[in-house]
Design brief:
By secondary structure, this protein is α+β, with helices and mostly antiparallel strands. It has one domain (about 25-180). It is built from 3 helices and 11 strands. The strands form 2 sheets. Strands 1, 2, 3, 4, 5, 7 and 10 form a 7-stranded mixed β-sheet that branches. Strands 8-9-6-11 form a 4-stranded antiparallel β-sheet, with no helix packed on it. Strand 3 and strand 4 (about 50-60) form a beta hairpin. It starts with a helix and ends with a helix.
Length: about 200
């Protein structure tokens, strides 16, 4: 009996890891307290690959000193999905938050001894809070984001995302993608474990 329970638990764990594997590239970032205002701030809005973006530079970031901030269309919360296509998805992307420690519903602030308001777009929420409202489905260099309704939780009015400069190639509405091969592998392993359990039960 104990072996049967352990096998069921393992199968469920394998199946439950599928979304986690599919969402391994994205990560939230904060606009707030990334350095003093002379070192980390927003540049003037521009267009990259035909997409309106606001560059955010941070000389303290040796990996991505310049990232592009772009808005997800305002009808995202109505259930419309969007597919983001990147030059290289492994360069990273995700929700760009204000993460203002004093009030995340307000704009971002600098890390100066007397904080300075940073004038630029960011998702008004604490760092990472918006991920609960989004399902990320990644395939190759694309990510389809789908809005999730969370009971008792109010989403931000607008979602802003980040990716390294010039990495975003397009934003397409209503396009779905297939799960990663690793997701299929984990799902298959979970189903196999359930099939083995069923066979043991029948033979018992």
């Amino acid at each position: 009996m104990f072996k049967r329970i352990a096998l069921i638990t393992s199968a469920l764990a394998l199946i439950s890891t599928v979304p986690a594997l599919a969402n391994s590239v994205h990560a939230p970032r904060s606009a707030s307290q990334q350095g003093v205002s002379t070192d980390a701030n927003f540049d003037s809005p521009t267009t990259v690959n035909g997409i309106p973006v606001t560059p955010f530079f941070n000389v303290n970031d040796s990996v991505d000193p310049l990232i592009d901030i772009f808005q997800i269309p305002s009808n995202f919360e109505s259930g419309t999905s969007y597919t983001l296509t990147f030059a290289n998805i492994n360069n990273g992307y995700g929700v760009f938050d204000c993460a203002n420690p004093n009030d995340p519903t307000q704009g971002a602030i600098s890390a100066d001894s007397t904080p300075v308001a940073l004038l630029g777009p960011c998702t008004h929420e604490a760092l990472g809070a918006g991920d609960q409202f989004i399902t990320f489905t990644e395939s190759g260099n694309t990510s389809t984001i789908t809005f999730n309704t969370v009971a008792g939780q109010t989403p931000p009015s607008t979602f802003y995302f980040w990716t390294p400069d010039a990495n975003l190639l397009s934003i397409t509405a209503g396009t779905s993608t297939m799960p990663e091969p690793a997701a299929y592998l984990m799902l298959g392993a979970g189903l196999l474990a359930i099939a083995l359990l069923r066979r043991r039960t029948v033979n018992a």
